[in-house]
Design brief:
Blueprint: H1 5-14, E1 21-26, E2 29-34, E3 37-43, E4 46-50, H2 52-59, E5 65-67, E6 78-81, H3 90-103
Antiparallel strand pairs: 1-2, 2-3, 3-4, 4-6, 5-6
């Protein structure tokens, strides 16, 4: 599946400009990593976020958010947000939550 290049550019614009931020094609889309840990990504025209179990459960109460499920088995701690859910400045808030979670993970070797 191709990913929305415009959305990827919007995510890049809110990602911090640091050496430990990288991109990788995963899940049939594009993911953004912080220190080697996935934090968010673009799948089709949707935003995927790694928030951890507690924050992902909280996020599911928001409109346009569902569990991330690309294989028939939802990934715990991950959510998918439809375009209506990250319009305007909402994208920045979602990405910041994902960055916060990734920053709290132990360093990768």
């Amino acid at each position: 599946m191709a990913f929305d290049e415009t959305l990827a550019a919007r995510v890049r614009a809110v990602m911090p400009d640091r050496d430990e931020v990288s991109e990788r094609r995963m899940f049939g889309g594009l993911t953004f990593l912080l220190g080697g840990h996935m934090c968010c990504g673009v799948h089709g025209d949707e935003l995927i976020l790694r928030l951890g179990r507690d924050r992902a459960t909280e996020a599911l109460a928001a409109p346009h958010v569902r569990p991330m499920d690309l294989t028939g088995r939802p990934l715990r701690g991950f959510v998918t947000v439809r375009p209506e859910g990250f319009a305007g400045d909402a994208l920045r808030r979602w990405v910041e939550l994902a960055l916060e979670f990734a920053a709290g993970l132990p360093p990768k070797n």
